[in-house]
Description:
Blueprint: H1 2-12, H2 16-30, E1 34-39, E2 42-47, H3 53-60, H4 65-74, E3 79-84, H5 90-96, E4 101-106, H6 110-123, E5 128-131, E6 134-135, E7 140-145, E8 155-156, E9 162-167, E10 179-183, H7 189-194, H8 197-200, E11 205-210, H9 212-217, H10 222-229, E12 235-240, E13 243-244, H11 250-261, E14 270-275
Parallel strand pairs: 3-4, 3-10, 4-5, 6-9, 10-11
Antiparallel strand pairs: 1-2, 7-8, 7-9, 11-14, 12-13, 12-14
Helix pairs in contact: 10-11
Amino acid sequence: xxxxxxxxNVLSLIPVGYKYEIFYQFARFLGIGGxxxxxxxxxxxxxxxxxxxxxxxxxxxxxxxxxxxPIRKLLENGGTxxxxxxxxxxxxxxxxxxxxxxxxxxxxxxxxxKFLKANIAMHGVDNIxxxxxxxxxxxxxxxxxxxxxxxxxxxxxxxxxxxVKAFPLDQLALSSGPIAVKIDTQGAEPAVLQGxxxxxxxxxxxxxEFWPWGMSRMGLDAAVAIDIxxxxxxxxQVIDHxxxxxxxxxxxxxxKLEEFVLHPAEVRSIDICLAKIT
Length: 278
């Protein structure tokens, strides 16, 4: 008991970031595949190998609150949320706490999808439909690459050793009422948007990652995404690492995005929030 108390006291003096590194190394050595993290969005199960999303949730106790808040506000009286690139469900499950919201969680990676399903069961919600597929501009079977340390950067790519099914978002059958969509597909956004033109005409709120380097990595043209987003009828905001710009016109947004494309960088991405004017 004294030894256990000594170990506990020693560990209490170690910063949480170092504790994570100790845990990570031991877990990999012992062959542990997943672990639970508790935060303000509840308990979540994720991969030990994920040193991005799970590590961030462990250290900061929250994930994507700047995205979750406007979605929750729009859908406070019910509606539909489509989470494209749902990963393990941190955003989907936060929105699903409102039982009047129908959530559709789309995740192509098999391992992420298993954790997503486990988290849905653990949270005890029954208003999430989980789809193990990628969003694309047509029905297809596509090559898929996994990032060995960041489960949020698994992505479609010609060099991928895995295969995933893909489909256009316009195939989704959605009920009436407000619709919010989040798209975070690590560069596939131009093709995703091409397969979602009918859906976009009904969307009240769209939050989409804009990462020109990721699009180029996938062989896609950011100009295609800009053209489709510029057809949205409403107003726009840029979300840059949790900081919101002032609302701007769609034309102003287009100029911002075109300027952003001129300086692509692997670590530089922003989120675009598009909302109908009410």
